[in-house]
Amino acid sequence: MSNEQKTNAQSLPRGFQWGAVKAGIKASGKLDVAVAIAPKTANAAVMFTKNQVVAAPITVGRRHLRATGGRVAAVLVNAGNANCATGQAGIEGCVQTCVAAAETFHCIFDEVFPSSTGIIGVPFPAEKVVAALPAVQATLGDTPDHAELFAQAIMTTDTRMKTARAVVDVDGTEVNIWGAGKGAGMIHPQLGAPVGPPHATMLVYLFTDLAAGSEELNKLLAPAVERSFNCISIDGDTSTNDTVLLLASGASGVQLTERITEPFANALNLVCGSLAHQIVDDGEGVSHVVTLHITGARTEAEAKQVAKAIAHSPLCKTAWSSADPNWGRLLAAAGYSGVEFDPAKVNIRIGVQPVFELGMRSPLFDEAAAHAVMLEREYTITLDLGQGSAECQFITCDLTAEYVRINADYST
Amino acid sequence: MSNEQKTNAQSLPRGFQWGAVKAGIKASGKLDVAVAIAPKTANAAVMFTKNQVVAAPITVGRRHLRATGGRVAAVLVNAGNANCATGQAGIEGCVQTCVAAAETFHCIFDEVFPSSTGIIGVPFPAEKVVAALPAVQATLGDTPDHAELFAQAIMTTDTRMKTARAVVDVDGTEVNIWGAGKGAGMIHPQLGAPVGPPHATMLVYLFTDLAAGSEELNKLLAPAVERSFNCISIDGDTSTNDTVLLLASGASGVQLTERITEPFANALNLVCGSLAHQIVDDGEGVSHVVTLHITGARTEAEAKQVAKAIAHSPLCKTAWSSADPNWGRLLAAAGYSGVEFDPAKVNIRIGVQPVFELGMRSPLFDEAAAHAVMLEREYTITLDLGQGSAECQFITCDLTAEYVRINADYST
After folding, report:
1. Which Pfam families does the record match to this protein (chains A, B) (predicted)?
2. Which of the four CATH numbers 3.60.70.12, 2.130.10.10, 3.10.290.10, 3.40.80.10 does domain B3-281 have?
C-alpha cells in the first residue's frame, strides 16, 4: 500500500459526477450553482461550524443526514448568497431547492445535501436555484473537467479554485480521494460535530470511492479536520456556514478495514492539509502565508491557543505585511493568549533566525536577515514555550490594506 | 455636593507638579520624558495589564508600591521605548532611572513609579532618561500648561493629548480630579489587580487632592476601570505595559468618608469614561467610533463577551470603515463569541434603524437610512440578546487601510 498524489484523470474517485452552471445569483454572472451526485448514493461524514448562528442549509443538511442515517445522493451548492439570517423563508427556500433537486436527480429529497456561501441576511433566491437544475443536470460528468467545474462554481472572493487528490493502493486496487474547497474571507473554521447552529464561508467537499459507513467516516474526518481546517485562520472570523463533507461511494470495491485505516487516514490528511493551505494562500488580500509552529507547550490545546492569539493579532499581521521583524508583538500576543508561561523560557525564531531568548532579544538577532526571511511569500515562525512537549502547526497570513479594501465594500 | 467638569485652572488637583522634556528617545525628537511629583507624597492605587509578558517598569513599579505600602512621590514616564522583553538589563535600567529620579526629586527610590511606552524588545536607554532629569526638574510647575506638558510627553502614535477633569464640591471645598492618558494602538486593556506580568501601551495617570488611603483608592479605581478602560478596544491587542495609576495627594484637606464616596466615584467615572472615549477616538487610523450597546444578556460578562467578539471582528470593523450596514457580520461575530443565545430572539439596531429581528432582516430595514447613520463619525449599534437584563457599553472603532499603513511600518 502506498499514498501518492496524482494529477492524472484516473485518480478521481469513481461513483460520482459533477457539474455546474450560472444561475444569476452571483452579481459577477459567474458559475454559482454546483452539483455533485452519487448515482448509487454515498455514505457521509460531516463537520459544521460551531457558530451559534447557522445558515438555513446547515439546519436542513443536519436534518437530512439524521433522517437518512448519513446517506447522500446529491450535493447542491450555491455561491453568492449564504441563506443565513433569512428566517423561516430561508429554511423553506432551502427545502424547496432540495425537493426540486431530488426530482431532477432521481433521489429522495433528504438525500440532497444543501450548502450556501455568500452574503448573510439577503433573502435566498430559491427560484433561481430551482430554475437552474435542468441545466446543471446537462453538465454532469465524471471527468476532471467536470470536477473542476464544480470546484470553480463554489468560489466567492477566491481568486483560484482549490482542489487536492490522493490515492491509496490497496493490493493493486486504487482508492481515490478528491476534494474541492473554497475560502477566502471569514476564515477561522471552528468545526465540530453536527450539533448547534452554523453560517460558514469555508466549504470543503471530499469524495472517495472507498466503501465505509457513516460512523467510520466521521471517526476519520474529525482528526483530519482538527489538524487542517481547524488550524488555519485568515481573519479570525468564524463563519455561520463552514462545512466539511466527506462522501464515500464505495465504488472502488475496497472496504475500510483496520488494515487500511492508517494509509487512508494519511491520504485524507494530505488532501485536507493541501486544501487548508490553499485556502490561506488565496485568502483575501494575502501577501504572506505564515506557519506558526508553537512548540514546548504543555498541551496541544495550549499550543493552539497561543497560535490563535498571534494569528488574530492585527499588530502581528500588519508587521508581516511589511516583512517587519517586530517580534515584540509576537511575544505580547502570546502573553495575552490566556496560556500561562514564563517569558524567560520562551524562544522565538523567524525562519531559522533567532530573535528572542532568555527574556530578551537574542544576541544573534540580525534584523536584516530576519527581514529577508519575511520577504519570502511563505515562512515559519517558531515559538517555543519551554514548558512541555506538545506542539501545533497553525497556518495564517498577513493583514493588508487590500483585505480592508475587499471587505469595506461588500454589500453596498 | 455636585459633580461638574470644569476647564479653568483652579480645577487642577493641588499637591502635584508636572513637567516634561525631550530626551532623544523618540525618533521624532518630540517630548518623551514626563514627570509628575507629589512633594508631600501621595497614596496610590494601580491597575496593570493582565498580559503574561510584562515590561520592566511594571515589575519595578509593582515592587515599589509593595515596599512603600502604596506611597508615590514621583511618576517617571518615558515614551519611545517600552522597556519590555529587555531582560535583566531592562530591569536594572529601570531601577537606575528610579534611583536617579529619587536623587533629583528628593524622595526614596521606591517612591518613584516608573512607566514606559513604545517599541518592545529594544534595549532601554536608561542613560538618556537619567541625563534628562535635571532639565525635567526645571520644567516642573502646577499650572495647566505644566499638566499639558506631561500629557503631551506620554504620547506615542497619538495625534492629540487626552486629558479630563472633574470637581466634587464638598461643603464648599473643591476636590479635584485630573487625568491624562495615551493610546493609540495595541489597545484592548485587560486591567487587573497588580499581580502577574504586564507590557502596555495604554497609560493613564489620575491625580486627585482627596485624602484617601491606598486600599480605599483601589476599591474606587477597580470599578471605574472595569466600565471604562476595560470596555474599549481599538485593535484587540492587549499591551504588556497598560497601566492606570490613581494618586491622591490629600491636599484638598477633604478626607474620603462614606458620605462622599458616591459623588467622588461618579466624578472618577466621568474622568475615566472621558479618557477611555478619547483614546478610541484618537485610535490609529480610526474614522468611526462605534459604541456597542449589548442588552438583554444573562450577565454583564456575557454582554462584554459578545461586544468583544464584534469589536475584534475584522469583517465588522472593515464594514464600519465604509459605512456598510452589513449586519450579518455583527450576527456572525456574536454567534462565535462563545455566548449561547437564540438568534430568533436577537434584535439589532444601527442607531435607531432596525436591521435584524425574529431571525431575519427586519421588515423595516432601510439600507440607505442605516448607511446614513454609519456615515456619522460616531454612532451606537444595539444588539439585544433577548435572554436577560444585563448589559454593557463597549467603545470600539473601525479598521482602515490607514491602521494597516501605520502598523506595517513601525520598527523598520
Report:
1. ArgJ
2. 3.60.70.12
